[in-house]
Amino acid sequence: MSTETTKKDFLFDVQKIKSDFPILQRKINGHRLVYLDSGASTQKPIEVIDAHTDYFKKINSNIHRGLHTLAEDATNAYEKTRSHIAKFIGGTKTSEIIFTAGTTESINLVAYTWGETNIAEGDEIVITDMEHHANLVPWVMLAKRKNAIIKRIPITDEGRLDLSDIQNIITEKTKLVSLTHMSNVLGTVNPIKEIVQIAHQKGAVVLADGAQSVPHMPVDVVDLDVDFYAFSAHKMLGPTGVGVLYGKEDILDKMPPFNMGGEMISEVSFERITWAELPHKFEAGTPNIAGVVTFDTALTYLENIGMENIHAYETKLTAYAIKKLIQIDGLKIQGPYNTINRGGAVSFTDKNLHPHDISTFLDSKGIAIRAGHHCAQTLMKRMRTIATARASLYIYNDEADIDALHDELFAMRRYFGHE
Amino acid sequence: MSTETTKKDFLFDVQKIKSDFPILQRKINGHRLVYLDSGASTQKPIEVIDAHTDYFKKINSNIHRGLHTLAEDATNAYEKTRSHIAKFIGGTKTSEIIFTAGTTESINLVAYTWGETNIAEGDEIVITDMEHHANLVPWVMLAKRKNAIIKRIPITDEGRLDLSDIQNIITEKTKLVSLTHMSNVLGTVNPIKEIVQIAHQKGAVVLADGAQSVPHMPVDVVDLDVDFYAFSAHKMLGPTGVGVLYGKEDILDKMPPFNMGGEMISEVSFERITWAELPHKFEAGTPNIAGVVTFDTALTYLENIGMENIHAYETKLTAYAIKKLIQIDGLKIQGPYNTINRGGAVSFTDKNLHPHDISTFLDSKGIAIRAGHHCAQTLMKRMRTIATARASLYIYNDEADIDALHDELFAMRRYFGHE
Amino acid sequence: MSENLDDMYREIILDHYKAPRGKKPLEEKDITSDGHNPSCGDELKMELKVDKKNNIADVHVNCKGCAISVASGSMLAEYIKGKSLKEVKLISEEIKKMLKGEESKITEDIGDLDSLKGVRQFPVRIKCALLAWMTLIEGVNKFENGTKPDSFTVSTEDDK
Amino acid sequence: MSENLDDMYREIILDHYKAPRGKKPLEEKDITSDGHNPSCGDELKMELKVDKKNNIADVHVNCKGCAISVASGSMLAEYIKGKSLKEVKLISEEIKKMLKGEESKITEDIGDLDSLKGVRQFPVRIKCALLAWMTLIEGVNKFENGTKPDSFTVSTEDDK
Ligand SMILES: Cc1ncc(COP(=O)(O)O)c(C=O)c1O
Ligand SMILES: Cc1ncc(COP(=O)(O)O)c(C=O)c1O
């Protein structure tokens, strides 16, 4: 693969890509913006911004029930994105693609519907020690309501899942294994396919949180054989307020609906209510139509670069970032150093400085990173830290951005007197 | 009031307003677009479209937890809209304004949290015979889960609430009265304040569905004294995928959270999870930041015209529409003829033609109306019809639009051979 | 969407709509089948008399709905009379394909039915045209399986 | 946001941060109060010795957190020593107001504390500067109400 990667690399002109993102022209405190917070939310290329404008200037209308031209154009555009996503994540049925407001809502939907009807007293729900709150709090609270048990797959000090005891963690009592595909803090990419096999052998259903993976590498949910998969448009060049829940049709079919209202019913009387067919059963009310329509353009933008290329490029850049950061005295990378099965979320701590001070200092130089617990307080505890600083990479970052980060981290230590 | 209204009318230049909406330049099947489907979703002025573009070109970032400039700018812009809404609906606390994905989610949030903890077996939930599915299905299903009882305030043949028996409908057993402020089918504006007084006397909480009212008239939730109020941005010049739930602080404080994940927690461990303060407790995950930020501009646009002016203008235009439509033989207006306490949703049926044929025909002439059950199947049953055609008005409509509708409805009857 | 209004509302369709065939309820019937289209509210009642050779001896269709669903039901009533159950099911499946824009194997002259093609340009109206045919298929299937008449209702929503 | 980095990280603040006062745990204490700031993870432990005249005889502050929270805690330790409980509560409320940009009645010279003003331009960091003062108020309140020491934890999230 590595020779192929090198070849494809020539197709990937980062300077051209940078120029597609208007916000990168913005000056921050007099410096050029070095945006290293894509793990929180990515920037948007002009194509996506224009697609949104176009939608409101030419198509805007409510969807589905309308019989006029705008309503039909809007419905077609909305459903086009659904088909696009089905293709993008490995060729699912369109009935298996549900639009939500984001990863968080996708996971909560499963907890409120599948969880409410399938988890009973004494059942086990398996998560891991590196989950985002979105894939932790809903399950802890569900377990509390149901008197079910939360079990955790531990992690190694390097920040990888420790699967040595997996056969005792996932058992016949396990009803659900819910884990992140890629950690937003450590960058670790988990072996979903392997875990799915074990879980399915024990009769458990698997949900993978793809918020950090789908944007950065090719993902084939059919091949992974996951039962549910969740992700957010805003972390992959798309608009805010749009998420996806993929679910296997036979499982979705048996689930009760989540939110209730227009579009998700078939017939309503006080005696009897019947639900609409999939996927509409799970899409109550007016969705984020403009957002969904615009998401299509983001997917196309990513495909034009190629998810394989994006993955290869980011892996190289991540390796470069790690190499540069470990040169700084007192800095510790929190997460694997090896870039195999590792994405571009690079967390670090400084022996003397709190991540908030690091972030404030870097911002004064135009560098945007994130600092805090990254909605992963239990992982922070496991790592025996209260917070980390995190630089997270995307297609519009390059070595110059990493160099800027490195140089300012050096300058920072001088500023705070920790040379 | 009527002289004051006439005076203000001069401030309201509909032709200027029309020119603010780029989509109105679009030709539909060779005709100018006559958009009479604002009850489903309104069009957007160029200011709103530009605000959205601006956000993505200059500010875009995730909010709240960020310590860099973009994150802070985005957070400020997001919270600015919250303050604006608090002012727009009568001066509530900002902690009482919760952002959701739309009216439907706002109401479901209340059903899943307040409803789940406050409704018990034998309790009564009062709705009306003119509710949208969004304010009906959640309550019917909640009642089913809890063995509670749904009671309905009936409507008169004219399409007004029949309050003659109200003291027997709202009783000491009533825990919730949930009703629409304005019917999306009939146009009827309900006497919320009066009903709130009765409900509060009996100890019940009141939710008003403001999806069709807030966009069209001044609304003061503090004066109405409602406990919950729900509405959608996309029906008032704003983006799709943004809604609001207003709730009284003391009630919200006691409610468990709805969706769970990032931003809505304070501390997370496997032993103990504590929730963030209001309103964040109810805003899990990355919200529709761009949408919320853009909504601010829509509110300003409406305020610049003035909600009193908008209301007065639409009342006049509705009267004109009713007057014109009843001239057509075989056409029946479904809803009050009198424009006092009546908005601009004008439903009608034709003796001989199905609403879908009406809509298809009108569309061929560039006129966008809606046809169907309007997510109000139980109301359709009450009106002894299966569907209606609906023209719904907004600030960019004028008498010429109504004339076009009238003339093509005439032409239609000839086309289908029903002269 | 509606540049081709006349394509959908062809002369023939309007003719069927204004004077639907098969209006008269049957005195004897072997099959009754009810269909409806919840998103439009269209409702259709169908009665069929089957002779000893398994041919359709008589048809009654009563549709409360839009011009398209009424016309489609009327055309059905006219077309299937005298045809065998097998033929009837075959043509129903082919009409479904035709309406959905899939490849259909129709080669023979299907007369008025051909005019339903115009509906294809109006995707939201396809369900209207389908209603009668789905109700027919369901009725014939249940008849062949020995299910009692009038024990079921077809919904266009079930057809994905 | 950070054009004014030096406004926040003033000489004085960095000085307190690098060499925090009140580091030494007390042997005898009348008040202990723990505070923390969940969104940052900052944690602060405070011990106070109160003399017979209800003056602060000695202070210990141990803060694990960012430069701002550490410096703020250090300044507090330096400032409140020798002050009466009443004075101490008053100044804490005034510092809260100052940090939130509300009108404060501080007229006297508050020395190093004045340098905390720079934090105002960094809204997300205000909680960091507040932590020590909220922990102090809570501790003194509980002491006056006769609540036992070390039975409570302050969270900055409770402060709206
Ligand atoms: C009265 C009423 N309630 C609720 C809704 C649902 O609003 P949304 O689809 O924006 O959630 C609508 C919109 O059609 C409405 O008209
Ligand atoms: C791993 C992971 N899961 C879930 C989420 C939540 O996504 P959203 O905020 O878009 O709902 C995030 C985003 O921060 C994430 O990184």
Which features characterize this protein?
heterotetramer, A: about 425 residues, alpha/beta, Aspartate Aminotransferase, domain 2, 2 domains, about 40% helix, about 15% strand, disordered N terminus, C: about 160 residues, alpha+beta, 4-stranded mixed sheet, 5 helices, globular
Main sheet properties of chain A? 7 strands, mixed
Q: Biggest sheet of chain C: strands, sense, closure?
A: 4 strands, mixed
- Tally of alpha and pi helices of chain A: 15
- Mean of all residue-level pLDDT scores of chain C: 87
Architecture of chain C in CATH? Alpha-Beta Complex
How many domains of chain A? The number is 2
Q: Please state roughly what percent of the residues of chain C sit in beta strands, choosing from under 5%, 5-15%, 15-25%, 25-35%, 35-45% or over 45%.
A: 15-25%
Radius of gyration of chain A over all CA atoms, rounded:
22 Å
Q: How many beta strands in the DSSP annotation of chain C?
A: 4
Uncertain runs of chain A are 1-8
Helix content range of the residues of chain C, please?
25-40%
Q: Structural class, from secondary structure content of chain C? A: alpha+beta
Number of strands of chain A: 17
- Name the helix and strand elements of chain C from N-terminus to C-terminus, one letter apiece: HHEEEHHHE
Mean pLDDT of chain A: 95
Tell me the CATH architecture of the largest domain in chain A: 3-Layer(aba) Sandwich
Radius of gyration of chain C: 15 Å
CATH topology of chain C: Sufe protein. Chain: A
Bound molecules: pyridoxal-5'-phosphate
CATH class of the largest domain in chain A: Alpha Beta
